Amino acid sequence: MKDFSGRTAFVTGGANGVGIGLVRALLAQGCNVAIADIRSAHIDAALTALDNPRAMGVPVDVSSRAELARAAQAVEEKFGVVTLLFNNAGVNLFQSIEESSYDDWDWIMGVNLHGPINGVMTFVPRMIRAGKGGYVVNTASMAGFLGAAACGIYNTTKFAVRGMSESLRASLAPHGIGVSLLCPGLVKSYIYASEEIRPQALKAGAKPVNTEFVKRLAEIHQFGMEPDVIATRVLEAMREDRFHVFSHPEFKDELSEVFGEILADFRDYPPDPGHAQRIEFEKTRRETYRKQRRGLKQS
Ligand SMILES: NC(=O)c1ccc[n+]([C@@H]2O[C@H](COP(=O)([O-])OP(=O)(O)OC[C@H]3O[C@@H](n4cnc5c(N)ncnc54)[C@H](O)[C@@H]3O)[C@@H](O)[C@H]2O)c1
């Protein structure tokens, strides 16, 4: 992506944290930007602070297909077709899977996984029809690589967003639409306050909020990375058409260690019947996958 200026961007979770950083960076590049967020008051505050006619607010719950379809319509009417999509809205619950309820699953999966799915299903066909190329950035997390006991549902969603993004990168390349995956570590953001926007219908299965813990989380997030720094790194990756956006370089060693452990789980089993045919069959897939990883078009 080289030509940002004049394009229309849609940033979910755009009123706070990573999202508002992206909004500011995109406006600085001359884009029209829709700030899509569930917190209307925060959208209004962002619009006031930005004071920029190229920014508009769109109150939306990304877990709702109908709301996203309406949001897409509203943005297109004002700014034209969206060709830069940032599926960034996310929420977190800091608890293990066995401590969680179905309501917890439905809420976190709804925002963190169905949000990006709905974003892609709503905007990508329009992008393809417009024929102007474009870009999709999905916000995962280092939690999309590093599974931990303390945030099982969150891990599940972020690993899934990673898989979806890798596949999408391959399938959208022939349309001139790039895909990147943003994997931040700690961000100076508001995510610790997620509980306050949990939908009423999914509150029955919620554990009581531990206010002391939330206070501690707020303190920790204060030394998270500034959203503006992350946004600069995202736009740089888009310019380079680079898939992974590892905004926090301090994770490199740990990831290397984890990948080493994954490889160490392989065993040299003796060939079983069918092994040779399987290897032959896999040749084409392997080659296609290699091309995909190198960013080459499939055709
Ligand atoms: N905070 C971190 O340390 C961290 C680390 C890695 C990844 N992330 C990811 O970064 C992304 C942005 O989060 P953040 O840290 O900036 O948090 P944040 O809470 O500051 O911002 C997220 C925004 O998403 C909005 N949002 C939540 N649910 C929504 C919904 N259903 N529909 C529309 N908008 C909704 C919130 O109102 C908020 O404005 C998330 O996907 C998060 O998982 C955050």
List keywords for this structure.
299 residues, alpha/beta, Rossmann fold, 7-stranded parallel β-sheet, 7 strands, 12% strand, binds nicotinamide-adenine-dinucleotide
- CATH topology category name: Rossmann fold
Estimate what percentage of residues fall within beta strands: 5-15%
Give the beta-strand count.
7
From the N-terminal CA to the C-terminal CA, the straight-line distance is: 21 Å
User: What's the overall average pLDDT, rounded?
Assistant: 95
Ligands (ions, cofactors included): nicotinamide-adenine-dinucleotide
Q: Biggest sheet: strands side by side, in what order? A: 3-2-1-4-5-6-7
Largest sheet: 7 strands, parallel
In short:
This protein is of the alpha/beta class and 299 residues long. It has 9 helices and 7 strands. The chain has helices at 17-28, 40-50, 65-79, 102-130, 152-172, 211-222, 227-240, 252-264, 275-293; strands at residues 8-12, 32-37, 55-59, 82-87, 134-139, 177-182, 244-245.
Describe the SSE topology.
Layout: E1 8-12, H1 17-28, E2 32-37, H2 40-50, E3 55-59, H3 65-79, E4 82-87, H4 102-130, E5 134-139, H5 152-172, E6 177-182, H6 211-222, H7 227-240, E7 244-245, H8 252-264, H9 275-293
Structure overview:
The protein has one domain (8-257): 3-Layer(aba) Sandwich (Rossmann fold). α1 (17-28) crosses α7 (227-240), α3 (65-79) runs parallel beside α4 and α4 (102-130) packs parallel to α5 (152-172). The chain has helices at residues 17-28, 40-50, 65-79, 102-130, 152-172, 211-222, 227-240, 252-264, 275-293; strands spanning 8-12, 32-37, 55-59, 82-87, 134-139, 177-182, 244-245. With 299 residues, the protein is α/β, with parallel strands linked by helices. α5 (152-172) links the parallel β5 and β6. 49% of the residues lie in helices and 12% in strands. The longest helix is centred in the middle third of the chain and has 29 residues, at 102-130. The radius of gyration is 20 Å and the shape is globular. It has a seven-stranded parallel beta sheet with strand order 3-2-1-4-5-6-7, sandwiched between helices. Nicotinamide-adenine-dinucleotide binds at residues 12-13, 15-19, 37-39, 42, 60-63, 88-91, 111, 139, 141, 184, 186-187, 189-191, 197, 224.
